[in-house]
Amino acid sequence: MNMLRILVGxxxxxxxxxxxxxxxxRLSAGLAARGHEVxxxxxxxxxxxxxxxxxGVVVHRVTSRRLPWFDAMRVCLPWEAASEVRDVYxxxxxxxxxxxxxxxxxxxxxxxxxxxxxPLVATNHLMPENIVGHLPMIPASMHETFAGxxxxxxxxxxxxxxxxxxxxxxxxxxxxxxxxxxxxxxxSNGIDADAYERARNAVAARRGAPAGPTSLYEPTxxxxxxxxxxxxxxxxxxxxxxxxxxxxxxxxxxGDGERRAAWQALAGELGVAGRVRFRGxxxxxxxxxxxxxxxxxCMPGVAELQSLVTMEAMAARLPVIAADxxxxxxxxxxxxxxxxxxxxxxxxxxxxxxxxxxxxxLRERYGAASRELIQAHTMGTTLGVFETLYEKVMGVVPLAx
Length: 401
Description:
The protein has 14 helices and 16 strands. With 401 residues, the protein is α/β, with parallel strands linked by helices. It folds into two domains: 5-190 and 378-393, Rossmann fold; 193-376, Glycogen Phosphorylase B (Rossmann fold, 3-Layer(aba) Sandwich), CATH 3.40.50.2000.
């Protein structure tokens, strides 16, 4: 295809650590590696605007403000975002725009694209339910009402795009029902599966063992993600505590968030503090090693539109135990690459942990199936789909093709 000048709008971007930020980072770097001129417009991590370059991508930082009650996210004021995004457009003059949000920065990206006539692709990564819990000015009794308003707002903004995508069929169904975006369709976030395979082989080589179950005597259960309430790591800790007295193993919790201290205290109360390690944020290389060193992955969260971390675990040949909620059943096939449990059913989760911690051969079989299943979600495939969409909205190929 022709090389394009692409502007990616991102409400959250590296160094932020979340699924949407990691997708925008991988998308922009992957497009640049394929020869496109890629620019990203994103909130400044320090507040002040600026321009930086990494992985062949030019990142235009927009003035941002920190929310006093939510340190993990910075926001752009609408009038500042509108002015600065307009300036970025004038400097970049993109062939196509791909927004990954509809809030103040994303709205400015959409508005400017429509005003200037630039073709627009929009991808949704947001579940408003994940936001309202971090807004202390919204009483709990109003959470559902406010989330409904956010969905309708998403529908109004994204209805202006030429094409709308979401990571999974479940995520598409959600914005179809709640936001009224009837023409949306799924495109996987994608993953560099080979990087996780290389890391696993490297860990196995250092241990002098073939790739497969990495520890027969102290198998490690791994969780990766924000330590916020919707991730329900407390259920994982309670389930692990139920099997800990008579099973070898440990639990590694990677990530940080508002619930970290409370969940560390819970591990102490349940008598498993010595076997539950809270590792905080890890660098990309450290995270690869964490996946490669683990034996089993667990995702108890109930608000996953796709769950990049679960995909990463699968790429690292890990069996997966996950909540039967949102998009996770698209990734986890019970009896094939892992098991599902009903959210809140700690006993069911404990039973799956007990089975897999005690059966290295089953872990190896499930892990091999995970690796096979993840081939449908490679980053190369995702980039190819988006390149085709860009050409379609630009009129290079028919939209119906």
